[in-house]
Structure formats: C-alpha cells, structure tokens
Amino acid sequence: MTRPADHPAIPSRKIGVLLVNLGTPDAPEPGAVRKYLAQFLSDPRVVEIPSWAWKPILHGIILRTRPKKSAHAYRQIWTEDGSPLAAITGRQAASLQARLGDGVLVDWAMRYGNPGIQTAIDRLFAEGATHILAAPLYPQYCAATTASAMDATFAAIAAKRWQPALRTLPPYHDDPHYIDALKRDLDRQLAALDFVPERLLLSFHGMPQRTLDLGDPYHCHCQKTARLLGEAIGSPVDIAFQSRFGKAKWLEPATDAMLAAYPSQGVRKLAIAAPGFSADCLETLEELGIRGREQFLAAGGTHFARLDCLNDSDEGMGMLDALIRRELAGWWPPS
Ligand SMILES: C=CC1=C(C)c2cc3[nH]c(cc4nc(cc5[nH]c(cc1n2)c(C)c5CCC(=O)O)C(CCC(=O)O)=C4C)c(C)c3C=C
Ligand SMILES: [Fe+2]
Ligand SMILES: [Fe+2]
C-alpha cells in the first residue's frame, strides 16, 4: 500500500551516539565563568543542600567571588580551540564518527554550558536518529555527574511526541577495555619520561564524604579502578581525591595534602595521573599540572610529571569504540 501524499514522513531507523561530558565556560572571562558556574552549582545533583539554604550562599558569596579566580585559572589553560575539555570532547566525537562510519550519527554535548544536551539531542533528532545511545564519559558512576547527565538527557526527549529509543552507557570503572587502555597509555607516557618516578599517584575528582555515606558508589568505583590499574601496571599506586569545594568534609586523602607530604616521606620523583577524567580539563591541567607541581616542588620534590588523560589517544579511542559497539549490539550493525 502506498503512503497518501499528505501523510507525515515515516523515518527509517537511524542510530545516534551522544558523548556527554561535564561542561565548561564559553570564554575564560569572569562573566562567562559566572554563567557556567551558576548553571553547574544550581544543579541539586551537584550541591545537595536544600535550595533555600544554598541559593543565598551561591548568589551572595560564591558567584561574586569565584568567577574571577576561576577565570584566571581558565586563562592559563585556554587553547586556540577554546576550553580543553570541549575541544578534546569534540575530537573524541570526530574520531569515534570516523571509526564507526556513516551508519551511526555521533554528536557530543556538555551537561553545563555549550553545546547543551538539548541542542545535541534536537540535532540528532533533526538528522533522523530513531535510536540514541547516551554515553556520559564518566568511568566511575556518581550522582553528581552520571545521574545529572542522564536527567538532562531524559528531560531533552521528554517533550517529543515520537521519542527515540534510548540506551545509556553504564559506568566502566572496572571494564577490562578501560583498565587495559589506561595501562597501555600510562606505560607509554611513563617510558617517555626523562626520570623514573618513585611513586605513581592516581588523583580522582573528590566528592563530599556525605555522598559516600548516602550510598553513592563513586568512592568504591574509584578504589576499584585504582586497584585494577595497579595490578595491571604491576606496581603499587597511591590514590587521592582532588578539587575540594566548600566547607563540608570531602573524600580523603586529599591530593594537595599528599603532594605536600611526599618529599618528607622520601618521595621526590613523582608521576600523577587522573584516570577518572576522560579528557584533560581545568582540574588536571591547572590544578594538578600547575598548582600541584608548585606544591610538590615547594615541599622539596625534585621531579614531577603530570600524565595526560586518555583524551583522543589511540588507546582511549580504541576503548571507547569497543564500549560503544558493545552497547549498540542488537541495534547496530544491522543484521
Ligand atoms: C570527573 C568527575 C567529577 C566529579 C565527581 C565532580 C564533582 C563535583 N565538582 C564540583 C565542583 C566543581 N567542579 C569543577 C570543575 C570540573 N569538575 C569536573 C568533573 C567532576 N566534578 C570537571 C571535568 C571539571 C572541569 C571543567 C572544565 O571546564 O575544565 C568546578 C569549576 C571550576 C572551578 O571553578 O574550580 C567546580 C566549582 C562539585 C561541587 C562536585 C560534587 C559534588
Ligand atoms: Fe567538579
Ligand atoms: Fe568504598
């Protein structure tokens, strides 16, 4: 039977993949940073304080003081292609698109700032995606990151009459593809150093201690990644948590405290990696690579190397390619 001429178009099956990362300001300027922080820190998944108590602190104190300080930090790591986090996520999407070929539409989005999740979902939709795999690029599950990205993705399709089928990439903190990619990538970077580190420190983004007590698996996921990576590398690794924010107790040990203490414990040559970040960003390039280095050297350290995240390296993209293909099974490739 032929379709009547006035009948709406019926889409054929098309697969979309949406890579999602945290977000970043549009420019390393206080105004742009304020806008980004306002969106980020108003997310109840990120700051779990009742809004009546948090809003006055956010708008009365934090958004008046932090944007200037953070803009200064962003300026030190900004590139010709913009914020490293956005630039690298864009390259990861382009590389994945090349690996998967034209049969799959690959796009990317930021949970906060641009390009937003709604924009990316609408674009995939306009390009005809009927099936979408949303892939938050967080190996370790955390409500503040993974769940927040999923909330925004679900919200982005909520108003659609004909919703796409939706799948989500599960956390991959203990996936052999991830551990193996990290091992090979770190082995390569360590072998290229002009010194032999006495210790490898794995620094993960911190979280309030309360989130662990409330049942967030993030802390356990970080510990498991560190254990498996240490076993794969074949030497002991240390673990620490960075980027403390606010006055509450955060997960410990703290990265800055470890960096300051190492030299007095006889560790003067250090390598630091941040396996919880899929892409280098403010927290790795500035906090670890600039301020962390200064702290370690000021405390008596002599050699310091910040190792890159997986980014769009062959190891990182091979892993992402394998994880995404596995999650697309049954949808793609067509049988
Ligand atoms: C990798 C996982 C991340 C978790 C977990 C996380 C939790 C978390 N973060 C804040 C506050 C801030 N984080 C900031 C930057 C930032 N955070 C992550 C990742 C995680 N955050 C990334 C990748 C980045 C870098 C963004 C970039 O543009 O490069 C910032 C902004 C920067 C600054 O002003 O210092 C804040 C603030 C909280 C409160 C939190 C958990 C509750
Ligand atoms: Fe953060
Ligand atoms: Fe735990």
UniProtKB/TrEMBL annotation:
Pathway: Porphyrin-containing compound metabolism; protoheme biosynthesis; protoheme from protoporphyrin-IX: step 1/1
Pfam families referenced in this protein's UniProt entry, alphabetically: Ferrochelatase (PF00762)
SUPFAM superfamilies: Chelatase
Catalyzed chemical reaction(s): heme b + 2 H(+) = protoporphyrin IX + Fe(2+); Fe-coproporphyrin III + 2 H(+) = coproporphyrin III + Fe(2+)
Species, as recorded: Sphingomonas edaphi
Similarity field: Belongs to the ferrochelatase family.
Annotated protein name in UniProt: Ferrochelatase
GO annotation, cellular component aspect: cytoplasm
GO molecular function, a single term: ferrochelatase activity
The organism's taxonomic lineage, starting at the top: Bacteria, Pseudomonadati, Pseudomonadota, Alphaproteobacteria, Sphingomonadales
GO BP field: heme biosynthetic process
InterPro entries: Ferrochelatase, Ferrochelatase_AS, Ferrochelatase_C, Ferrochelatase_N
PROSITE patterns in alphabetical order: FERROCHELATASE
